[in-house]
Amino acid sequence: MTLLLTALNTGNTAWMTIATILVMLMTIPGLALFYGGLVRTKNILSVVMQCLVCTAVLSIMWIAFGYSWVFGTGFHGTGIGAVIGGFDKVFLHGVGIHSIMAPAGIPEITFCLFQCMFAVITPALIIGAFAERLKFSSFLVFTILWSILVYNPMAHFVWGGGWLQQLGALDFAGGTVVHINAGVAAIVMAVMLGRRSDYKPNKPIPATNVVFVFMGAALLWLGWFGFNAGSGLTADGLDANAFLVTHLCTCVAAMTWMVIDWIHNGRPTTVGVCTGAVAGLVAITPAAGSTDVLGAFGIGIITSVVCYCMVAIVKPKLGYDDALDAFGVHGIGGILGSILTGVFATAAVTGGPKGALYGDWHQLGVQILATLFSIVYSGVITFLLFKLIDKFMGMRVGKRVEEEGLDIYEHGENAYN
Amino acid sequence: MKKIEAIIRKTKFEDVKEALLAADIEWFSYYDVRGEGKMRQARIYRGVMYNTSCIERTLINIVVRDKNVEKVVSAVQKAAQTGEIGDGRIFVIPIEDAVRIRTGERGDIALYNAEQEK
Prior knowledge:
The complex is a heterodimer.
Chain A lengths: L9 H29 L5 H28 L28 E2 L4 E2 H23 L5 H23 L4 H5 L7 H19 L16 H20 L7 H29 L4 H15 L8 H26 L7 H19 L2 H4 L10 H32 L6 H6 L1 H6 L6
Antiparallel strand pairs in A: 1-2
Helix pairs in contact in A: 1-2, 1-3, 1-7, 2-3, 2-4, 3-4, 3-6, 4-6, 4-13, 6-11, 6-13, 7-8, 7-9, 8-9, 8-10, 9-10, 9-11, 10-11, 11-13
Chain B lengths: L1 E8 L3 H10 L6 E17 L2 E17 L4 H11 L9 E6 L19 H4 L1
Antiparallel strand pairs in B: 1-3, 1-4, 2-3
Helix pairs in contact in B: 1-2
């Protein structure tokens, strides 16, 4: 990102301010309600607290040094610049009310806040995997370290001018940086932590409040328009197209899920349609800036089918306890979206790079490389972080705490009194 | 003096209440109960089907004088009936004594308002 003296564009600035607000809605209350509704009553506050604290603590860290790490230019041109942007913008040093970003013409402060919301939601997504059994103190340490060691470098590689961006990987709004990153961390955490003590693979633990799940999914859907349509940083045709494909892909994925549910189990379920919608939102994220209506249909259908198989068939068979399917939906959805971007990308939208469907196999190769790299990077660092924190603090709550619920033991509160 | 304990469908509670009022029963207590049984209900969570044997019902407690037992039992039985499996049960249990806390009256008199009865 280069800073030039450009004129402020009020239209873009107004839109980006709204988009930032929309992305914040995704974490609180969106994700908090979505995840909170899915756990049992005794643990609903623990999940809400984790989402809430993610928002606060990660925002502070982003402004303190995360933004500088990802989008700083201090180490530009040096070897270390491939991993860390620089420390020149620590505590937003030099980012003032007159810093305008080219070419969008928005204040750099607005850009920083928009990106802040992405840094907040990514670690929050992992909560779904370790819900109902992680110690709050360990959660806090894990989240902070994960954000520093996994999110910041990945965001720099893909968006901040790092090597994946130079390679030409297409990740419009965060398929690799946000969803694969969080999804892979989720499966590592779920496997390392082990199952909840009373979880049996073919006997799911029913959601405490399906209306909360619906409200959360609806808020995620709404917020995602800011997430995807805001990622072009401008209010123009590309932004409108991102809005369009995001909405369409989500509808297609939700309906696909409903049809499979209906055929497979004889009933269309509410939790099912909400899950399908979220899977569609995840998958279209990297593709929102490079596909058209055809891509939205293709990605929506494929993602819903594969994610359904993951959570309904593969997960019970393998027996791991990804409590709220953070991996099954965000990990798998992100991987599919990232790879399918290399299939459905069209030059009519990107103005250059195109996918395998339009005869260019090179882009598909780049997408697969970026996807594999994110999987390995996030997987390895998350594994090491788990080992480290588990050794010093212990990750899991005690048996009695898990039985009685995290709300009372970890937070001293009940959701309903 | 008998206690009539009826386990009925939650959806039939309003009908039973009307029937009891029509049978001059002025007070009774009830609560939601859960039970286990052979009946299985299918539930689906994210594509995985599982069965729950948990059955939710309402339990009604009524204490009446012996002469009112048949009237009350038949009122509850008629009102709570749907004809399908799972309509519930009515139990009639002998009660040894009753005390009206306000006056200390014991026995049948503690159950009804003698003034109104005349």
